[in-house]
Every structure is written in C-alpha cells, then in structure tokens.
From TrEMBL:
Phylogenetic lineage: Bacteria, Bacillati, Actinomycetota, Actinomycetes, Propionibacteriales
Biased amino acid composition, Basic and acidic residues: 237-249
Alphabetized UniProt keyword annotations: Membrane, Transmembrane, Transmembrane helix
Presence of the UniProt keyword Transmembrane helix in the record: yes
Protein name, as recorded: Polysaccharide chain length determinant N-terminal domain-containing protein
Domain of life: Bacteria
Region (Disordered): 203-249
Transmembrane segments: 12-32, 170-193
Length: 249
C-alpha cells in the first residue's frame, strides 16, 4: 500500500482517528498527572591521605598527594556499599530510596553517590546515610589491617548537601510510550475498521445483485405452469367442432 492510499484511508476513517486521538490525549494527561515525579539527590566523597603521610617533618598537601592506591580503595568501598547485604541493611534502617555508588572515571578516588526517590526528603536522607557508611566502611577496612594513623585514609565530602532535584525522566518516558503506542494502535485500528467496512459493503452489494434461489425456483415453477396452460389451451382449441368442419372443407 502506497503512502497516498494509506493517507486516503486515514482521511476516509477520520472519525476513528478522532476517537483514538481523544483516547491518546486522555492517556497523556493521566500520565502527566498520575506518574510521580522522580527526585535525585547526589553527593561526592573524596578519599585523601593525611598531610603527615609523607612524614611529620615533610607534610604534604593531601590534594596533591593522591596515589593510585586511593583509587583502589575507593573502588573496593563502592563495591562493598553496592552489595545486596548492605542494600538490605540500609533499607532495614529506614532508608528505602534506590541508590548507587561508583568511582568517577579519570578523577582519582572520587566516589559519586546517586539516590532516586519520589520524595525529595527521602532521597536526601538516603544520600546522607550512604555517605556516612562510606566513612564507616573506610574505618572497617583499615582497622582490620591495622593501618597506622599517619597512613590512614579519610573521606571528605566535596558537595554542599544540595537538596534533591526533580528529574522529569519518568513522565517523559511514560508520555513517549503512550504517544508512540497510541499512534501505532490508531493506525492499526483505522485499517482494521476500513477493511471490515469494505468487506461488509461488498457483501451487501453481492446480495443485492445475486437473485434469491428461492425466488428463482418460484419463478421457474410459474413459468412452467404458464407453459402447461398454453399447451392445454391449444389442445382444447383443436378439439372444437368448428375447427373440425373447417378442416373438412
């Protein structure tokens, strides 16, 4: 089917397009109204060594003393906090927001914490709890290895406790699904209705053109009866006396 033919079908069944368009518009309105807004709270935690890590007599700037080992420790910490047991612990503590923690690429030992929830306060609270657990996990890892105080890694929060921000992605995705699905469904319904209507119209036309078998049989019976009557009339005429005399003459 060519584009012009498809367009003609859509124009011919405009009422179906109108009904489907109203339904899709209603679905979009409900999606915007009912789909909850997602909020995202993010935080950053930097792992540093103390200034005296290079010696008390030659202290150094912790920001300039970033070593590859700090990135390794950040990766281990993120892996531990992303594990299912820790997720369950956080949830049991009353922080039910979804969170993820990872190491920022090409930035060194910088942990990125991302939390999503439909309640901005819950998202911010879960972020703060995860950041607190980062410090706790660092202490646990180093205490088990008896790391000396001069080499003990500590965490520094580099964000300013920003509030959770609205993320319109959920509503946009819902509207995209409803809009795309509604468009496809409208086209399919229009072509289905058009096919059914044309098939019904052809059937009605065929019924009007084709004679009824019952009527045809009745017509044939009447025609046969008329033929028999004509034969009887001819026979009766031949038996009349006048015709016999005329024939003798």
């Amino acid at each position: 089917m060519y584009f012009t033919e498809a367009l003609a079908v859509l124009v011919r069944r405009w009422y179906v397009v109108l009904i489907c368009g109203i339904a899709v518009t209603g679905g979009l309105f409900l999606a915007v109204k009912e789909v909850p807004t997602q909020y995202q709270a993010s935080g950053e935690v930097l792992l540093l060594l103390p200034p005296t890590a290079t010696g008390k007599g030659t202290p150094s700037n912790p920001y300039l003393n970033l070593q590859p080992g700090l990135t390794t420790m950040a990766t281990i910490t993120a892996s531990e906090l992303n594990s299912k047991p820790v997720h369950r612990e956080v949830e049991k503590a009353g922080f039910t927001s979804d969170y993820a923690i990872g190491v920022s690429p090409d930035t060194g030992p910088l942990l990125l914490v991302t939390v999503k929830d439909i309640a901005p306060e819950e998202a911010a609270a879960t972020r703060d709890e995860v950041i607190r657990r980062v410090t706790q996990q660092l202490d646990t890892l180093q205490r088990g290895l008896e790391v000396p105080e001069t080499q003990r890694v500590y965490s520094r929060r580099s964000d300013s406790s920003r509030p959770a921000e609205a993320v319109p992605g959920a509503k946009i995705r819902a509207c995209a699904v409803i809009g795309g699905g509604g468009l496809v469904a409208t086209i399919l319904i229009v072509f289905l209705v058009d096919r059914i209507a044309r098939r019904f119209r052809r059937r009605r036309t065929a019924e009007q053109v084709e004679p009824d078998p019952a009527e045809t049989e009745e017509h044939h019976r009447l025609k046969l009866a008329r033929s028999v009557s004509d034969v009887d009339v001819d026979v009766d005429d031949d038996r009349r006396p006048g015709k016999a005399r005329d024939a003798a003459r």
